[in-house]
Design goal:
Four copies of one chain form a homotetramer. By secondary structure, chain A is of the alpha/beta class. Chain A has two domains: 194 residues, Rossmann fold (3-Layer(aba) Sandwich); 175 residues, Phosphofructokinase domain (Rossmann fold). The first copy, chain A, is built from 16 helices and 17 strands.
Chain lengths: 464, 464, 464, 464
Amino acid sequence: MIKNEDFIVKNLGERTHPSPLPLSHSNDDLVSNFTNDDERFLHEISLKKVSQIISGTPAENACWSDLITFEAAGPREKLFFDPEKIKCGIVTCGGLCPGINSVIRGIVMELYYRYSCRAIYGFRYGYLGMVKESGIDPVLLTPDTVEDIHNTGGTFLGSSRGHQDVNKMVDRLMNFGISVLFCIGGDGTLRAAHLIAEEILNRGLTISVIAVPKTIDNDINFVEKTFGFETAFSIAVNSIQSAHTEARDSLNGIGIVRLMGRESGYIAANAALASQDVNYVLVPEIPFELEGPHGLYSILKTRLERRRHAVIVVAEGAGQHFFGSEAERGKDSSGNTKLGDIGIFLKDNIAKYFKSINFKANIKYIDPSYIIRSAPPIPSDSIFCTQLAQNAVHAAMAGKTDMLVGIWNYHFTHVPIATATRERKLINPESNLWLSVIEATGQPAYIGNDPIFLSKTRIMGQKD
Amino acid sequence: MIKNEDFIVKNLGERTHPSPLPLSHSNDDLVSNFTNDDERFLHEISLKKVSQIISGTPAENACWSDLITFEAAGPREKLFFDPEKIKCGIVTCGGLCPGINSVIRGIVMELYYRYSCRAIYGFRYGYLGMVKESGIDPVLLTPDTVEDIHNTGGTFLGSSRGHQDVNKMVDRLMNFGISVLFCIGGDGTLRAAHLIAEEILNRGLTISVIAVPKTIDNDINFVEKTFGFETAFSIAVNSIQSAHTEARDSLNGIGIVRLMGRESGYIAANAALASQDVNYVLVPEIPFELEGPHGLYSILKTRLERRRHAVIVVAEGAGQHFFGSEAERGKDSSGNTKLGDIGIFLKDNIAKYFKSINFKANIKYIDPSYIIRSAPPIPSDSIFCTQLAQNAVHAAMAGKTDMLVGIWNYHFTHVPIATATRERKLINPESNLWLSVIEATGQPAYIGNDPIFLSKTRIMGQKD
Amino acid sequence: MIKNEDFIVKNLGERTHPSPLPLSHSNDDLVSNFTNDDERFLHEISLKKVSQIISGTPAENACWSDLITFEAAGPREKLFFDPEKIKCGIVTCGGLCPGINSVIRGIVMELYYRYSCRAIYGFRYGYLGMVKESGIDPVLLTPDTVEDIHNTGGTFLGSSRGHQDVNKMVDRLMNFGISVLFCIGGDGTLRAAHLIAEEILNRGLTISVIAVPKTIDNDINFVEKTFGFETAFSIAVNSIQSAHTEARDSLNGIGIVRLMGRESGYIAANAALASQDVNYVLVPEIPFELEGPHGLYSILKTRLERRRHAVIVVAEGAGQHFFGSEAERGKDSSGNTKLGDIGIFLKDNIAKYFKSINFKANIKYIDPSYIIRSAPPIPSDSIFCTQLAQNAVHAAMAGKTDMLVGIWNYHFTHVPIATATRERKLINPESNLWLSVIEATGQPAYIGNDPIFLSKTRIMGQKD
Amino acid sequence: MIKNEDFIVKNLGERTHPSPLPLSHSNDDLVSNFTNDDERFLHEISLKKVSQIISGTPAENACWSDLITFEAAGPREKLFFDPEKIKCGIVTCGGLCPGINSVIRGIVMELYYRYSCRAIYGFRYGYLGMVKESGIDPVLLTPDTVEDIHNTGGTFLGSSRGHQDVNKMVDRLMNFGISVLFCIGGDGTLRAAHLIAEEILNRGLTISVIAVPKTIDNDINFVEKTFGFETAFSIAVNSIQSAHTEARDSLNGIGIVRLMGRESGYIAANAALASQDVNYVLVPEIPFELEGPHGLYSILKTRLERRRHAVIVVAEGAGQHFFGSEAERGKDSSGNTKLGDIGIFLKDNIAKYFKSINFKANIKYIDPSYIIRSAPPIPSDSIFCTQLAQNAVHAAMAGKTDMLVGIWNYHFTHVPIATATRERKLINPESNLWLSVIEATGQPAYIGNDPIFLSKTRIMGQKD
């Protein structure tokens, strides 16, 4: 059970340095205001739920403190660090994701031009470059070196997967005299950043660890949206259109598109919604069956007989029960449970099924994974990356640590890393998002034969 | 002063028909739930402000009712109309905007497949086609006719600007036996829709008028985002890149891009932020001067001397004081005050200035207006349009009227048209958005010579 | 040995109908001229080769007839058919290719508006729809039905692979009273079209069979360029950029992109040239080895040690000797020899190699096949498709048959199908095109260990 | 009258240095061959015309020499320069055009990696940077500095318009010890390059001047295609689609798109052909009238009455007779006759016309000029640029001078600058290209009232 105290952000210590930003506290001077630490945003905006929480407890203090709130991001008037005197480091880890370069660039520009911090190091190839033994030296980052990187995909610093020794990484931060480490990465990276922040505190050091969560799957808890996600589903739409064209133009054509989504199907759901050409979306959150009168094979056959073609979008983490238990599947180098390749599995097994019933189907399979991951960000993601970067720098200068910069209801927030990584954000099958998907695809709310679910999920009126 | 009662949505009457949607009230059946009318969302999510409002009043009822809240959009369990028996009409008015076709398609698909409404008429060429005298007949809309329209820009129904007689329009609705009118349009369209709804009530009719606000400028009050806006600033980025390339590659090159934004500079601000190549953003909300030591000419010259090129983005409504008072400028056919062409004005006057000081500058001017307006929506806008359409249909079937479908903090809402059109949504010069713009461009917070503002807005550290 | 008589195009008979096109024979009236049948274009444009051929033979007639020439395409003044009275059929076969819809549209528009032919049938799903037993009826095509199809990929008529009975297809043409059949398809389709044309002549019928060659691989002999090819390599560049980004941003990253090209590597060569980010291009025309000191493994390892990343582009038909003889590989439904999947093969074997030498490499594999095939044409291809279609109609109306519309040195030509399909067009390893590839990639002219080739192909100066 | 002697390319002197390129003279060694100076390509490929020319003269030598032929581009076995010891310069002049950076990059890469030339200077801001008095120093170009420039539009070196003193430019070449100057520019640039080459010869210097023609209008004589042109018309298609959408979706909407084309309408013609949405294309080569029963106003009105919308594409140099004589219009800084703005002229006058007849028309005007000029090249242009650059370097190293690299019938050629600039390449109104335009648009071959032309150009069957 999440409590409000899980949302208290750690501070390295007292803030004694004035911010160099020329902001104000007044509302009519054309100048933005500094943000105070006690500025917090509500997690819940349903009036009914908010009033239930508040009214449900006797003491006034108690009731307010039961409301989960996020600390507001933004520039602080007093800083913990003297920005001109410190060194900062940036590291990017894990798979590629659109926008990493915009975040790097944004951090460098903000540090350099707004806070006059001149010593900015980029550790290369992820956490690997933060271990002395790798033999990989960091590079000095200046506005000149990063000026144009936002227009290209990938990460200017290089990346890698896999764990490194936390002690060695903290050693290297000490060796280089780094005061702030910006970590750009996904779930595994964030967990490691938390361990680094803890080791720093154990050693009594005052090094700030600020994360910008990078997960193309958009699955970080308490973060409404992660950068690169909008770009990802936007580009995925192209592959769906290709699959649709291929399916439609051959007799009984079936287009299958495998998209990212290890535990959360947000990319698949949004890409399907945007394209309007998808008939079935399969996501990790909602189990499905292949066999039986209400399984995928059967409803797919019915659709082909009626419409001659079909498009399936499947998130990479969907249907993992076909590949055995998590224990049987083992872990990859990033520490994630290995996934069976559900795309190839569906392609092969659907082909087998139709062959077995002597029904000539034409299956076309598209896996655009790297094409999506390596793309530059679309403009809305560019803006988002820049703002995440600016707020990450504000947080770091104020001496915040062990936190990530998130967004909730359009407001930038600070979230303790441990809280955000406790569990993944998943699609709620009863959410408006999923309802829109079902309405747009016309697929049954439940693809399987369990009589209890079947009775609850009367098939919704189908679309053609 | 806006009060919570301004957010009460009108209903045509008692709801007696069961919804054909197979939804539930339970949270564990894989089936989405119906939305109740008392589901409301907070306007304000700052904990400090919320608690101030609530604590500031003695009686519990009173305090809660001081909080501004929006009625939640979504499918209702009981309907006012029997959807299979009614006729619906759709009309699209005003200038083009990316996504209109997706909204039309979404309304038709939702009416047809989810509510089994089969009589859907599209009025052609805006309100003009709603007046019998135009001689323009409506077209019957079916899933087949709208299936592929979302992939193209513009409006399948055609559009027009200008006012029509409200009585004649209501006459025609009666003649055709229309029970629901969906109006897709901007400020002027919404005001007319409000008048139509009032005339309907005056006549004692039960015709629902539901609006989907269409303003590429994103300037509807109490609506976080309007459809087409994200597409607009995304495409505008291309023109900025062109202007940047042209400016950079000639000696003392100045690229000027005029973007949409009659009263609100959101497109200019976001496009500039996304491109990172802009040096000055001029918006209607913030006045600026050309002459004098701190005017635009002077800071532009300084920039050219230092960097040899500059890029200016100007919203069409910026700097209107250069063209005389509103009275002097008159009104256009949509009833908006005519705007002087600030783009051409700047291009000509900046050229004159540099000629007058014998400084050879190369000015390149880009006005991508129609290229942006006529584009199809980007994927995130496609999704948004579809969801707006679905919620518009839900609202209509429930017998809501004189309202628009909006969004606030990611939740779809119902907003009375009169409330939303009372004034425009503007960029707050002290908001985080504008701060990001200033940080990204390096432009002064104030471009002018007024000593009071100058003293308040110390020039922020410039970017190169 | 190809002789000039192989380029004589068959005619159905005497031309007695005047063309409805308002063209002229004069050069100063702003009106284009009709084309005569004796207008022919030189195959060879090298002065040296042309003069050798002509001078090499004694009799003047003989020498000119030794020059291979193509019959010029274009509108004829007299027609064999009376266009208002005949029925035409269109069929599209084989895999998708950008531009099919533009060709269909172009044929329909030209027939309808220029020749006033009103009975135009589209056979559906390839040759399958030309066999009565399929139960698939043709559709009537009009300007209205095809007006917007050029903006989408795929084929409006559907397609299929595989052979159908030639007699049954001719039967169906007779049943429908078709006078002209337009066949849009690749090598297999063209061979079948030739058989259809022969069967028609055997039966003493006067049905014209005109082909528009559709091969994304650009491998039709005596045809400089096929439609869709430019689009194909243009889109392939995106996948190469993705592979480059993925490779560059991980330590020892290897990006592998598999592109189309069963027997000819034109797409791979051109995409690599356009991207400038490729290090090795492997095509069917040039054998290569994996093992040994000069094999691919070895030079790849050297490159990684020097530059940390590499990009390989491989045409699907390259390296087929790794999969056994043609006999061992068998045939697919279109009658082509089955291809081993060289992309997956390289990916797996390169991974094995680096594992075996304990060298940590990161391999990213991209196969954009369907994304490319299903795309709409780029503008230059749109134009090309339209002009091919116009010339196909001109040829048909003149009573030409058993021929395809090609292009040579920018001039549209008529080529007998049997001549064009005798063998495939291949990249000449000593051509300027391949020289440009080698210069742009820096790859050795020969990747293998044969000492004779090694001595001839001194390694060209490498690029970084 | 052009004669074959006009196509003889100047050489600086005897070639004594062996080429470092590892090419051969044999056809079966996987290695490309060197090109000999006597390799020439025919200008004319019509068999009839070629045989007429040859047969028309008595002496065999004479008859061959009457055939116009181009010297083949390509690597020579012996070089005039020792590439490791010389310095090269590159200059880019005039307006932006897609692909300039690819040409710069291609020259640098070829010089550096293939010829081991290490001293490559880029003169900045066009010919201005070649004059000492400008105070602008050249930059040293290496593979590192140009590696990624091909992915962005514009010119890495900057550009300028206008004349500079030829003597001063040659002085500067001498001061820097430049042996080869690569000039990338349009008509004016080429004329200046010719003057530079002549001054060099006058001074007895051995500096090679090699041009790569850059004209987005594609109007260089004896050059089939210039770089950037395909990109230009490809991007222009987007603006036409916008104009079409805007026109179609308002009542009596007229979309006007102004495109580049000072004297030649190739961009307008090709963009119109590719889009298929244009009704009237106006180009400089074909005069037209506005008034009268067969003028533009009248046929436009008829079209609106029939179809409710129309799209006009106008090349910037069309209809210049509306603005007075060339003398009256004067010259711009590049020495070209100033053009009246035909786009604005048409927009204003068409509006006036319809107002005068009380016909409510909606005119939307798009001028995408800088958006097109500043774009990066499409892939086919990238390849073309690279190959032009490679051949420019081959020519320079062989000691050719006062020539440009062109292409004719897909073969790269050398053309003396004076010959290529003698007159512009224009669209022949009776060519297949223009016939395709007329067929695709359905516009009359002649828009005007001259009875002689009217009688010759019976109106071709119109398209809807």
